[in-house]
From TrEMBL:
It comes from the Bacteria. It comes from Marivibrio halodurans. Keywords: Membrane, Transmembrane, Transmembrane helix. InterPro entries: K/Na/Ca-exchanger, NaCa_Exmemb, NCX_ion-bd_dom_sf. This is Calcium/sodium antiporter. The chain crosses the membrane at residues 71-89, 98-114, 120-137, 187-205, 225-248, 255-277, 289-307, 314-335. GO terms for cellular component: plasma membrane.
Amino acid sequence: MAVGLAMLFIAGEGALRGAIGLAQKLGVSPAMIGLTVVGFGTSAPELVVTLDAALQGQSALAIGNVVGSNISNLLLILGVGAVISPLTCEAGAAKRDAGMMIGTAIILVALGMTGEIVRWQGAIMVAMLVGILFWSYRCDRRTQKKAAADKAAADRAAAEAAAEAGTDPDDIHVKELEEVGEVPQNIWVILALNIVGLAGLLFGAHLLVDGATGIAYRFGVPQSIVGLTLVALGTSLPELAATVVAALRHHTDVAIANVMGSCVFNVLSILGITAIVQPLVISPDIQAIDLWVMLAASLLVMVLLIRACTIGRFGGAVLLLAYVAYIGSMAVRFVPAI
């Protein structure tokens, strides 16, 4: 567990630098890379665990892992990130990412009410993900072109003002250049950081999940609580590592997009792919409680983002308290079963 946790944070640093560098090379925003490359990469542990659980006939563990991971992403991970450094993003990105997150949460709740996710529904979910990624890329490219045009106009105005004041125009961009200097520019280094960073996140999560679940089973904790808490938290640790590193480096747009993207991937790709391989049965307790907690957490985060495009430290503390309350309620729910 200790080695896995250390590996997560080291790999998170590499993955963040690689993501920012890749965004610069492709001409898209870091948020877009967070939504796609980092979002999918950090969701890979959930995919592995969910597929394995489904193939072993443990649908409660599989569904609980995804639902619990989304709850952890929204309440714990965003909460921790916001307490470290207020999380901000562009208004367009906030509406786009939060809208997709809410949409996928509603889809999962609707499927949950039927009691199962079958193969044809899984295929539609995967197709929806492909469409969402294509649409997000098109929107991001338009936003980037407009931002580039606005920046060019601002740079011209700043250069004219600097010339009138008799200062060096290059001094205006010292901070920006220093920040860019932390990011690799060589494409092979960028690709290596992304691949090695994401691989490190996966392997670190695997070590930690194995340790945590081994302890849980040793003490006779039921499968449901393992899926919704320890396994969900363990497979969410790559998102936590990536978000903490992004918050410390003040790349908060990547932090938010990483969590939003992970929630979307969890529902559409992980449950979609798993349902295609092995149809999933949703247990009554997850139907009655946890799906609604996930939807409420999604709505809370959406309100915080849409209202001011920022989750401040107070908002982060509220999210953390909500997560603590959820875990506390879990103990009450499962003590009789134990």
